[in-house]
Amino acid sequence: MQTSSLIAYAVPVFTFMILCEFIYGYLRKRNNYRLNDTVTSIGLGLMSRYPTLLKFGVQALVYTYIWEQNFHLGILNAYTPFVWVAAFILYDISYYWMHRCSHEIKFLWATHVVHHHGEEFNLSTALRQTSTDFLFKWIFYTPILFLGIPPEIFVTVAGVNLIYQFWVHTEHIGRLGILDYIFVTPSNHRIHHAQNKEYIDANYGGVFILWDRMFGTFIDERSDLKPIYGTSKPLKSWNPLWANLEVWVQIFKDTWRTKKWSDKVKVWTSPPGWRPDDVSEKYPIEKNDLDNFHKYDTKTNLFSKLFGFGQLVFVSIYTQAVLFNPDSISYLDKFLIGFNIMTILVFASLFYENKFFAYYLEFFRALSVVALVYLGNLNFVQEMILGHAIIAGVLSGYAILTRKNENANEAHEAS
After folding, report:
1. Coil, strand or helix: which one is 368?
2. Three-class secondary structure of residue 174 per DSSP
3. Residues 145, 151, 155, 161: what is their CA dihedral angle, to the nearest 10 degrees?
4. What end-to-end distance do the CA atoms of the chain give, in Å?
5. Contact 184, 209 (CB under 8 A)
6. What local confidence, expressed as pLDDT, does residue 1 receive?
7. In this structure, are 50 and 152 located in the same domain?
8. In whole angstroms, what is the distance from residue 344 CA to residue 229 CA?
9. Among candidate residues 52, 112, 110, the one with its CA nearest the CA of residue 338
10. Residues of the chain falling short of pLDDT 50
11. Residues 96 and 200 reside in one and the same domain
């Protein structure tokens, strides 16, 4: 059971809305888009679709077993309006608890933190999705399946819930009156993404803010306190792979380094900010000073900007085609496509971090893709992926040669 087909139809709409928000902000002189941040956000969203397509984890197996083996109570197994409404509400309250636990338990935070790294708050931030939530997310939704809700209804309400959350990631919509008391709105969700101590750890709802009001986790937006977005421990990277792994790496390091066995366990189950005393003293972590906060930003040349953006355009178009035709692609090709997409996005992020070795990596990636196509792999829209590999190889080769010529000229002038 997947929401991929529904998301596939939503992606073009998301892209159009992002473009509209950018134009609106630019014309109103309130633009909050940066190319490096936006490329990272959209890239993370595209990359996050591949674990689902590859059926990583046990979610599909568990859900399929519950339904096909009639391992459920059969209470809500009819296709009636009541069941649709009940499924939507039950899914949203399950989302609330999944989301809340993901902020309160460190190993769950590791699967969710990606969504909060962004220090801008715009519609592209909504696409900043994790690639590791398949590990545990299914646990929170399994009780719904035990009630007997049909898979088609479950998948549909899950997709609608996710799509709803897109529009609330904006600074251009203010308070919405009574709607702010019932639904998750931009005003409510801005608080959720803030790292201000007055706002942190609040407003976990997906569609309804009622759950936060019921369970004491609601905080209202203040007119005198602007949210500062991002995580208290800054990522300071555009790398989508590192964004997904950073907290996991920290957990494993702290587990290894601390001496007390009880702390080795607590590292995994504690709130995200907690660390063992012996580890935090010896290996301190830098956190943001909100009184002197500066967004992570990197300046790079025009060639790198355009090359990185071009990589994102290709990944977007190609992934869209994959989402519309998942059943026509072999599992091996899906895996190779997913790995190829990930490496394209990672190397593009390194362009924005001014790490020149990324051009060498991109050059060899392009050669590898050409070789794989020649060997009969990567058969889905083969002409497109081969054409991209050739263009990327030429451009990265040009960057390498140009840089070498520049270095040679600099050395000659110095002598």
Report:
1. helix
2. coil
3. -40
4. 66
5. yes
6. 46
7. yes
8. 27
9. 52
10. 1
11. yes
Does 28 share its domain with 127?
A: yes
In a domain, 321, yes or no: yes
Does a structural domain hold residue 261?
no
Structure tokens at 167: 């529009």
Q: Calculate the alpha carbon distances from 242 to 131, 254, 350, 414 in Å.
A: 11, 17, 11, 38
What's the CA gap between 188 and 203, in Å, rounded? Answer: 6
Examine the fold and report which residue of 197, 215, 233 is the final residue of a domain before the chain moves on. 215
pLDDT at 8: 83
**252 and 50 in contact (C-beta within 8 Å)?**
no
Burial (CB < 10 A; 0-12, 13-18, 19+), residue 305, is middle
**DSSP state letters, 293-305:** ---------HHHH
Could you count the other beta carbons within 10 Å of the beta carbon of residue 350?
21
Dist CA 101 CA 369 (whole Å)? 41
Model confidence pTM above 0.85: yes
Distance CA(78)–CA(178), nearest Å, equals 33
CB 53 within 8 A of CB 322: yes
Domain boundary among 195, 215, 235: 215
CA distance 246 to 414: 41
For the segment 338-363, what is each residue's pLDDT rounded down to a tens digit? 999 999 999 999 999 999 999 999 99
Given this model, what pLDDT does residue 58 score?
A: 86
Residue-wise pLDDT tens digits, 286-330: 899 999 999 999 999 999 999 999 999 999 999 999 999 999 999
Asked if the structure places residue 106 within a domain, the reply is yes
Residue 81 domain-assigned (yes or no): yes
Q: Find the domain containing 388 and state its range.
A: 302-414
Nearest C-alpha neighbor of 131 from the set 205, 44, 190: 44
**Number of folded domains that form the chain:** 2
Whole-number Å distance between alpha carbons of 204 and 211:
8
Residue type, 191: I
Measured in whole angstroms, the distance separating CA 294 from the mean position of its chain's CA atoms is 22
Tell me what pLDDT residue 218 has: 98
- Residue 316 and residue 15 in contact, taking contact as beta carbons nearer than 8 Å: yes
What is the 3-state secondary structure of 232-246? Answer: CCCCCCCCHHHHHHH
At residue 76, the pLDDT reads 84
